Prior knowledge:
The protein is an alpha/beta fold. 31% of the residues lie in helices and 20% in strands.
Amino acid sequence: xxxxxxxxxxxxxxxxxxxxxxxxxxxxxxxxxxxxxxxxxxxxxxxxxxxxxxxxxxxxxxxxxxxxxxxxxxxxxxxxxxxxxxxxxxxxxxxxxxxxxxxxxxxxxxxxxxxxxxxxxxxxxxxxxxxxxxxxxxxxxxxxxxxxxxxxxxxxxxxxxxxxxxxxxxxxxxxxxxxxxxxxxxxxxxxxxxxxxxxxxxxxxxxxxxxxxxxxxxxxxxxxxxxxxxxxxxxxxxxxxxxxxxxxxxxxxxxxxxxxxxxxxxxxxxxxxxxxxxxxxxxxxxxxxxxxxxxxxxxxxxxxxxxxxxxxxxxxxxxxxxxxxxxxxxxxxxxxxxxxxxxxxxxxxxxxxxxxxxxxxxxxxxxxxxxxxxxxxxxxxxxxxxxxxxxxxxxxxxxxxxxxxxxxxxxxxxxxxxxxxxxxxxxxxxxxxxxxxxxxxxxxxxxxxxxx
Length: 452
């Protein structure tokens, strides 16, 4: 640990993947780096938890990586970690309009008119997404018009059938952990473009959901932290003071000073943090306009993955909540069996005021609706309401409502004097994914090195 009497060259605020990546790159370049983390653990929105009854390690936060995500995959290799494929063998399930359908591939076997409607709408949506510059959505053609309406408004105008409207709203929940009414159309398009289209965000093989980290994604952050000299937990920053020579960060345990600072936390968490001098108005306003997504992650553990015996993959979508998306989250050896259910957007808000026991019952009944009564009797369950995490404020990431990209987007990554910004929200590729977090940390570290 760097002695308190010696100021580091750089302080990184936040020990998630973005902050730890930045710290590692700077340390490797010979800079003295200190990391301040408000939590009592590293990892941010990744968190691998060992279950008490079975001893199974499960990811309560981010967990998937894919071959189309070069930054995080390279980091995993550098750290000596391994990945294994998401189980996807068998038929998927879709509960749409009260009908339970079994299918393979991306789209359920809906009536021909519905399939034609989906093909036309998805083609139109992805064609628009390809016009959006990844690093600067506000410069897109017709950006003002696209940013003035919600994703839900566009769906209502362009989808001709209720089934396709339901599918697109499920896409919004699964990818943004939000209802489409919470997003601007420009944001939905830009975010989709990061994955190369709808499939890039929703499919397994060859896409973002292909692999999981052996032992849990929390191992990425832990190995990064283990390689660093000075990581201080339980150190929330209460005030930021900047002058011509450096930046002073005040914490309950004392002040820390460095020549430059990288702040790698969700922007909304900074809206109540005092800065002296105050941040530029555009940056301050941006932080006030970026609420986090709403998600409860629920897992049920069974002695065996019984759904595989029924020829099912464990992957399902449902327009009847509260669980709307499921995956087979079993370990690579296949036992015990684990069903993962996501409760997102308004479905999650509907359960917020319930106790854990009530949420458990509601989630299990959703699983039983899809997989049968055997889903009602797990050996163990675990849940995580990310909106209750004070140093995250929600998951998976920030939501850009109407007018935010065009009004404030230029401030998202622009340094303010000696203060630089990282975090998955600031990513130039794969925004709000682990890959985006790693990329943002690399970018912020490069800015600091160039500025010194």
